[in-house]
Amino acid sequence: MLTLARRPQEKIMIGDDIVITVFSKNIMRQSDMKTKISVGDKSYLENALEINEEMQALLAPLLKLAEEDIDTDAYLKLRAAHRLSMCQYRDLNALNNNFE
Q1: Burial 40-76 (b: 16+ CB within 10 A, else e)
Q2: What residue intervals traverse the membrane (predicted)?
Q3: Over 60: is that where the pLDDT of 10 sits?
Q4: 35 neighbors 96 (Cβ within 8 angstroms)
Q5: What sign for the dihedral angle of Cα 87, 88, 89, 94?
Q6: Between vectors from CA 54 to CA 72 and to CA 44, what angle results, nearest 5°?
Q7: How far is residue 29's CA from residue 17's CA, in Å, rounded to a whole number?
Q8: Angle at 26 between CA 93 and CA 22, to 5 degrees
Q9: Is residue 8's pLDDT more than 60?
Q10: Distance from CA of residue 71 to its chain's centroid?
Q11: How do residues 32-70 score in pLDDT, each as one tens digit?
């Protein structure tokens, strides 16, 4: 999706994840701007990322073992949990990269 600025200081949307803010003739990508958060909050976010990585490390081998040994419903639930953890990691990582 592309939205063009009509006035100075308007946002330009390019796709779903890139936003450009126009200040007169200067263009700055908002994804390059970092938001400051407290050291404690940054630590909580990093802990959540580590826990998510550990969950993925546990779920991936279970999926391989479960393909042959358990019924289809249990396998699909395990697969859904793995997919959710992967999506959560992507979102947490994006947050972590946007905060300093």
Answers
A1: eeeeebeeebeebeebeeebeeeeeebeeeeeeeebe
A2: none
A3: no
A4: no
A5: positive
A6: 125
A7: 11
A8: 65
A9: no
A10: 31
A11: 568 888 889 999 999 999 999 999 999 988 888 888 788
Domain chopping of the chain, boundaries: 37-99
Helix axes 72-98, 39-69, angle to 10 degrees: 160
User: Mean per-residue pLDDT for 16-41?
Assistant: 63
Whole-number CA gyration radius for the chain: 20
* 13 membership: H or E segment, kind and range: strand 11-14
Task: Tell me: pLDDT of 28 over 80.
Answer: no
More confident residue, 64 or 4: 64
21 CB burial (10 A radius; 0-12, 13-18, 19+): middle
DSSP secondary structure letter of residue 2: B
Q: How many CB atoms lie within 10 A of CB 85?
A: 20
